[in-house]
Design goal:
By secondary structure, the chain is mostly beta strands. The protein has helices spanning 17-20, 34-41; strands at 46-48, 57-59, 63-65, 70-71, 76-78, 81-83, 88-89, 94-101, 106-109, 112-118, 123-126, 129-131, 134-135, 140-141, 146-147, 158-161, 164-167, 175-177, 182-183, 188-189, 193-195, 200-201, 206-207, 210-212, 217-218.
């Protein structure tokens, strides 16, 4: 199986210093392996620059929270975690398993972030799950968007590309979303999705594992049937079948 020229589209215009020299454009998911471990292992034991509500729950070691971050009550944070400047983490969020959150990001109410990298100004603002994923700058996840990260059979994630499959070497991998990607409400991205920058994904889309180009629109087509209600009977019956 050849992996010499996978069709990975442009993803990130810039990466923060800790990640830039580790980045492999042909395998962007590799940042979620040893590079993320190395960066998080270098965090101090505790560096919290600001006041936290007593209702914020911190678990474990190596938790860094930078100035200007707003952590709302009932948030649970398990180290190691890096939270950049001016980040907002809303009530009920759960951050665990090794996470790096860049400046000015938003993690919404009841959103779960696990083993992920969020670049500057990325947003997972409403009931999202982000597992083993990278969100580029200015990514915005619609309400209910799920970045699924695990196959039911437990197999390694292999991404279809040009009639072949790229073996990522990972059993857990969600989505790699380039800068400016937007997802619609209730979209679900299957394990092993790579989306080029500034692409828009419509609401309700079930996006299968694969590589999707930059500056595109991924549409969901569906047919709707609108019928009149039936007098004196079930209001959901189609009069043509009576």
């Amino acid at each position: 199986m050849s992996q010499t020229a996978p069709a990975i589209p442009p993803l990130f215009s810039e990466l923060p210093d800790p990640f830039a020299h580790h980045f492999d454009p042909a395998a962007p998911w590799s940042l979620l392996g040893e590079p993320l471990d190395e960066i998080l292992a270098g965090l101090p034991s505790s560096d919290i620059r600001g006041q936290l509500s007593p209702e914020v729950h911190l678990v474990g070691d190596q938790i860094v929270i930078c100035p200007g971050a707003r952590i709302h009550p009932s948030v649970v944070i398990e180290g190691p975690v890096y939270i950049g400047c001016d980040v907002e983490i809303r009530p009920g969020a759960y951050i665990r398993g090794g996470v790096w959150i860049g400046d000015e990001c938003v993690v919404g109410a009841n959103t779960e972030i696990k083993r992920a990298i969020l670049l500057r100004h990325a947003k997972a603002p409403h009931l999202n799950y982000v597992g083993d994923s990278i969100l580029g700058m200015n990514v915005n996840l619609g309400a209910g968007t799920i970045l699924s990260n695990f196959r039911h059979d437990g197999g390694r994630i292999r991404i279809p590309s040009n009639g072949d499959r790229i073996d990522t070497g990972r059993r857990k991998l969600g989505a790699i979303l380039g800068d400016g990607v937007l997802t619609g409400c209730n979209s679900v991205l299957h394990p092993g999705v790579v989306v080029g920058r500034e692409t828009q994904i419509y609401p309700g889309v079930q996006l299968r594992s694969g590589i999707y180009p930059e500056k595109s629109i991924v549409k969901l087509k569906q047919e709707l049937e609108v019928v009149p209600q039936v007098e004196g009977g079930s209001k959901y019956r189609n009069p043509e079948t009576v």
